[in-house]
From TrEMBL:
PANTHER family: BINDING MONOOXYGENASE, PUTATIVE (JCVI)-RELATED, TRK SYSTEM POTASSIUM UPTAKE PROTEIN
Pfam families for the chain: FAD_binding_3, Rng_hyd_C
SUPFAM superfamilies on file: FAD/NAD(P)-binding domain
GO molecular function per UniProt: FAD binding; oxidoreductase activity, acting on paired donors, with incorporation or reduction of molecular oxygen, NAD(P)H as one donor, and incorporation of one atom of oxygen
Protein name (database record): FAD binding domain protein
Cofactor(s) required, per the database record: FAD
Organism: Streptomyces ipomoeae 91-03
Sorted UniProt keywords: FAD, Flavoprotein
Length: 530
């Protein structure tokens, strides 16, 4: 075993898949005997679909997703509809939001692991983990007893109350919100007219003075999943981000009424209050112990960052651990240069997490704060702006740009030690650290989409039409070479397994390329000359 993954939510499952597909032997443990329900996340962003595509799971996810969702915005007596499909995003194969439950994502990822021979060990709890400077050690408890294991790396994907984070001694900087979320699966009374749910084909958003109320046709025990915000009830002993005590029917009814939804509750299948916090781990790595997803950062549900951010963390860390594991001959050997690769995870993902925290905090303030200004914005300003909202929502480019920001399509790692400029610099190509945009290309045949050609694990070397051939040193099971015959020039772009550009050069800088491949662990390091 190279990597012990602690936690089998979307983050842990994605990390295990990514690491496995890049050469690591993985083991996944989960303390819960059954998958966690109910689903808390309901939206998958375009960038998440992009990074999951090389793992071979995207088609299965899209089969169970609503990829052409509509949203009905209720502003008093007026209802504004907007379509969230086929937005003006020409550089991605997924120009839409995808509505699907977290449980469906986990089902697909779990099956993909099983197809690779990796079984999630449920009912197995991490008791403690440590790094002795040479290896990681973990103590596990299951129905079979206590087990101590040794491996190169432990990845903590075990949520806000992370045991791995606690064992690593990593601080947790943040604070609780004064507002909380109420979740419920319910059947409202049948309502005719535009003021209520129009059927299970679109999400409903109600803007009220006390906060926003969402109804998604994605319930697990009833048609509709309710998500509403209200002032925190402050019940002690509750884990942040985890569904807790049931909410009385009368309180759920009051939330509907406060949001301007004149509907009774025909059936309330379940409900729960969810206390929230805004928090960020001070480190994402301590030696051989790593944090990802909710173990590293905790957000409000505004803009749907939680599940998607965890997937992005996992895809970033997974290939690095996979390649790093390949550098080890035995579980305790250190290889020079490995720390640069492993440190890059925190260097890249923690700043991205901090920026998302600002985004979600601002959005949640507008959505849920009961302060004078946000309450006025929801109750008065939104109503006054109602005539202009259809015009704004009709601006597809405006919606597309908002989606770019929300879905992390604009995230870059330009300051990463893994982002390297070759000599001479290649003009007109994405910079090292940037996400590689999708485009139409030719590789000696009919036009193809670039991301389709890159939809397999590994590093992809894109040669321009007139570029020199590559040296024999540029070989390996995870290195793939494509010559773009519709791109004149002598340059090269190297694309990381997570779809970000890592290296570029205007002519084939063989020494620079071999050095970069060695840096990331995709090729053997060059020999040390006396």
């Amino acid at each position: 075993m190279d990597i012990l993954v602690v936690g089998a939510g979307t983050t842990g499952l994605t990390l295990a898949l990514q690491a496995h597909d890049h050469g690591a032997r993985v083991r996944v443990v989960e303390r819960r005997p059954e998958p966690f329900r109910p689903s808390r996340a309901l939206i998958l962003h375009p960038r998440s679909l992009e990074v999951l595509r090389p793992l071979g799971v995207t088609d299965a996810l899209l089969e169970v997703a609503d990829t052409a969702p509509t949203a009905h915005l209720h502003l008093g007596s007026r209802v504004v509809e907007t379509r969230l499909a086929d937005l003006a995003l020409p550089d991605t194969a997924f120009p839409h939001l995808s509505l699907l439950r977290q449980m469906d994502v986990e089902t697909v990822l779990t099956q993909a692991l099983a197809d690779r021979g990796v079984t999630v060990e449920r009912g197995t709890e991490l008791i403690t983990a440590r790094d002795d400077g040479h290896s990681a050690w973990a103590v596990l408890r299951s129905a079979h007893g206590i087990e101590e294991v040794r491996c190169p790396f432990v990845a903590g994907c075990d949520g806000p109350a992370s045991t791995v984070r606690s064992c690593a001694g990593i601080g947790w900087h943040g604070r609780p919100y004064a507002a909380e979320v109420v979740l419920a699966d319910l059947e409202p009374d049948a309502i005719s007219g535009p003021s209520g749910p129009s059927g299970p084909s679109g999400a409903q958003l109600y803007v009220g003075r006390q906060g926003l109320l969402f109804l998604f046709p994605l319930g697990e025990q009833a048609t509709w999943r309710l998500l509403a915000t209200r002032a925190s009830t402050g019940e002690p002993g509750q884990s942040f981000g985890q569904p807790g005590a049931a909410v009385p029917r009368a309180e759920v009814q009051r939330l509907l009424e406060d949001a301007g939804l004149p509907a009774g509750i025909e059936h309330l299948a379940w409900s729960a209050r969810v206390p929230l916090q805004c928090a960020l781990a001070r480190r994402f790595r301590q030696g051989r112990l790593f944090l990802a997803g909710d173990a590293a950062h905790n957000y409000s549900p505004a803009t749907g960052q939680g599940m998607n951010a965890g997937i992005q963390d996992a895809v970033n860390l997974g290939w690095k651990l996979g390649f790093a594991a390949g550098r080890f001959s035995g579980e305790s050997a250190d290889v020079p240069g490995t720390d640069v690769l492993l440190d890059s995870y925190e260097r890249e993902r923690r700043p991205a997490a901090h920026r998302r925290m600002i985004l979600t905090h601002t959005a949640f303030w507008a959505e849920a704060s009961t302060g004078l200004i946000p309450s006025w914005l929801r109750a008065v300003a939104a109503s006054l702006a109602t005539p202009a909202i259809p015009v704004l929502l009709g601006q597809r480019r405006l919606i597309a740009e908002a989606l770019r920001v929300i879905s992390q399509l604009r995230v870059n790692y330009r300051r990463s030690p893994l982002s390297v400029e070759g000599t001479p610099r290649l003009r007109g190509a994405p910079r090292p650290g940037d996400r590689l945009p999708d485009a139409t290309v030719s590789v000696g045949g009919p036009p193809r989409r670039l991301h389709q050609l890159l939809a397999r694990p590994g590093v992809h070397l894109l040669l321009q039409r007139d570029a020199e051939g590559l040296p024999d040193a540029v070989t390996g099971p995870h290195i793939h070479v494509l010559r773009l015959t519709n791109s004149p020039g002598h340059g090269l772009v190297a694309v990381r397994p997570d779809g970000h550009v890592g290296f570029r050069c205007g002519t084939t800088d063989q020494a620079g390329l071999v050095g970069w491949l060695s840096l990331i662990g995709a090729a053997a390091p060059p020999p040390i000359r006396p």
